[in-house]
Amino acid sequence: MPQATEPRRRRGIYLLPNLVTTASLFSGFLSIVFAVGGQYAHAAMAILMCVLLDNLDGRIARMTRTESDFGMHYDSLVDVICFGLAPALLVHQFLLREFSKLGWLTAFLFVAAATLRLARFNAQVGSADKRYFQGLPCPAAAALLVCFIWLATRQGLPGYSLAVVVFTLTLGSAALMVSTFRYYSLKSFDFAGRVRFLTVAAIALTLALIALDPPLVLFLLTLAYTFSGVLLTLNEKRRRRRRKRGHRESLPTVQTVQGLTGDTTTDADFSEDTTDSFGNKGKTD
What we know:
Strand content: under 5%
CATH topology: Four Helix Bundle (Hemerythrin (Met), subunit A)
Helix content: 55-70%
Number of helices: 9
Number of domains: 1
Low-confidence stretches: 264-279
CATH superfamily: CDP-alcohol phosphotransferase transmembrane (TM) domain
Mean pLDDT: 83
CATH class: Mainly Alpha
Strand order of the largest sheet: 1-2
Radius of gyration: 30 Å
């Protein structure tokens, strides 16, 4: 009998989703060039373009059924550059370099947290709940930093207040990336499905607000998403405690069972004096 041969693996990679990922890589590299040259607003906008392209490449791969292991690993490597290295370098060139070792150590912690966050995501890709992310997603953390820098370049915030906010945002977003807080996955949103009319109206209103003041509105949106994961996790823990407390209170106690059965005998009742059929008194054990 002829032996069954395994199907030959097709060579090559899918062009369209990997082309979008390469465009994201180019935008991240362009952000680094702008940051080194002191063009911080342009560097911030380049990273925001990376955020947009990062959402497009995976969605395009799923819609065209061109998902692959190569594309997943390629996307992760690009994300390390676009959402780890590029925003950390931008925030270092913008302000942190004035604080010497403390500045570049803070920037490095952001890069390390983003890399660890991506490694954990890849390790849990087959078992994690696709509706949620564990830890703040790297694109959201990067967008939070760069939107504030874009806003600061336009508003001209004072030096001391600016330093406090930048250090807080950098370290806070790094800690949230490696945390266990649950965040809603925006990738699960079905653009091909039906939505309510109010949803379309809300999207139109959001786009109008972004057009009025892009850095301010985008920063507020990313800040709200950053806090949403903390509130979501704390709310779930509070509900879980309430369920456990309610379950314990619903369990019947020994006194309740005895009251329902009418059995009120105790150990003392078995030790009382009794009289047998021959008239002898005694105590039962």
